[in-house]
Structures are given as C-alpha cells and as structure tokens.
C-alpha cells in the first residue's frame, strides 16, 4: 500500500473585487466551514484568517484574488483558501510572519497568526512579482495544536475566463495501489508496474462557459471510474465519455516512483513539463480533440529526477514561464507552486487550469 495522500478539491468561488472581498470572503468562509461540519469556534477561526488574508490583498497588492474551496479525503473534509497577487511581494517573509507584523487596516492578528490558526500553511513571495499563500483548516478542538493538515502529492487550480462563473478546465488525481504487473499495451511498449502509482489528468474543455465545463466534468468522472491503469487506456475511456460533448484537450500521466519513471499521453493543447533543479523536460501531446477526433495514441516514458515536479497546464497559461524567474519554487507545496505559475503565466482571455504533482519521489 502507498503512503501518499490525495484529496478531492471542490472550488467554491474566486473573490476578486478588492473592495468587497474581505466581507464577502469572510461570510462565505464561515458558511462553508459550518456546512462541511466544522464547529462554530473553528468556523470563526476560518473566517478570521480569511478576513486577514483578503484585507491584506486589498491594501497591499495589485490584482489580488482569493480562492475558497473544500478539500475532501475519505475520512474528513476541510477548508482551504489560496491567495494570488501580482505584487509588490515581500522581501522578508519570516519578518512578515512574526508577531506584531500586521497589514494596515486588518484585524491586527497578522499573517503569523493566520499561519498558526491554519493546520497547514505555505507562502512563496517574490519581490516585485507577487505572492501566493495557501492555508488549510480541518476540525479540531479549541486550544488544540494544529493537526498538520493534509499534505497531498498533487494539487491544482482552475480559474474561469473573465465574465464566466464556471471553468472549462478541470483536473483529477487518484492512486493505483499496484498489485500484479499488468500486460503491455499493444503498440506502446508500456506495462504498469506492480508497485503503487499516481494517476493524474488535466482536461481543457473546448471553448469556455457551461458547455466546456460539462465536457471537463465528464472527463473527470470518466477518469475516476475507469479501471484502466495506463494513460492510453484512460484516454480511450475519456474519449468515449466525451462523445456528444464539445470535447477537449486531455493529458494523462502515470507516475511510478518505485520504478523511477513517468508515462505520459496527451491529445490537444495541454502542456506537460517535468521540472527539476536546473532541468526542464517538455512532454509532448498529439493533435486532436478528445471526444471528437483522436489519432493513434502514443505514450512517452521519461525517468523521474529527484526533487522534480510534474506540471500540467492548459493553454490558459502561456508556456513561456521560466523557473529561473521563480527562485525557490520547487521547495513549496503543489498548491503554492500551481498558484505561482498561474500568477506568472495565466491569461484572462481563456479558462486556465494547472495541476502539480511532487513529493512522492
């Protein structure tokens, strides 16, 4: 059995209006915390932390946004918020997290107290570029120490095109607990390892709006229900599920830490990168539209490098981002890493989606 953790993420809402953000996000956070079963005291702590983060965005950043969402494991549910802004960044993050350092006009608890209220907290700031922060809140009794939260091997972000409330991009991850080694797939030369593996999928529904979102949701459902263990088989099942829909660009990866390899198969304009310290390996996708016209599939196999991360994103992010412009990025959690790349490379004229897998090898 694997020791990796995966979570299902349910995005609730992006808050972008600087003036309305603190009050709107506070109310939504408190309501969400109670809805998933957190007690009143813990729900008030969630609301307090969200208010501090949102007010900080309003007073000290440009183009700040806050995403509120639910994290679910088979045993429990928690609240996570992610903030993304384009500047000015913090030159000294430890100082900003120290007691007594509070943003002007906030409740005065400071980002350090936010980090203590959270069960898991991560922040990455680049002076002159921007900051991304992620905080998780799970059930705990008043006065108890943070639980440590859940440290998933994968996380991602989706953001709808300006003017839309539903996003046509979606991602999903699940575990293959292994067992007997599978048979080779004809024409691919690949066979699933007997050891546990991580399966990850990103779909960019064609166009944007509700119909694109329906296609992306169908891809997620098919990915989760499929019994296939290899990327090609999963893509075929997704192709079948998307017939009659708009279709989309889809990529699927299988990560086998025990075997030290990554299997990758994609159709359409999904960008895949295996990013390591000083290395960047691009992963190729074939032309086509899953659900409509899909050519012969081809799986690419690449070795996993220590301390590397798999990054998959739609064309709602440009592929011109440079890791050298984001020092320290690979030391952070998948959620913060995804947020920094969304901040750095995201465009507003299309839906944007990104998923990151790291920490399992």
Automatic annotation (TrEMBL):
Coiled coil: none annotated. Transmembrane segments: none annotated. The keyword ATP-binding applies. Signal peptide: none annotated. The keyword Metal-binding does not apply. CDD domains: HATPase_RsbT-like. Residues 176-359 form the PPM-type phosphatase domain. InterPro entries: HATPase_C_sf, HATPase_dom, PPM-type-like_dom_sf, PPM-type_phosphatase-like_dom, Ptase_RsbX. GO terms for molecular function: ATP binding. It comes from the Bacteria. Keywords: ATP-binding, Nucleotide-binding. This is ATP-binding protein/SpoIIE family protein phosphatase. It comes from Streptomyces cavourensis.
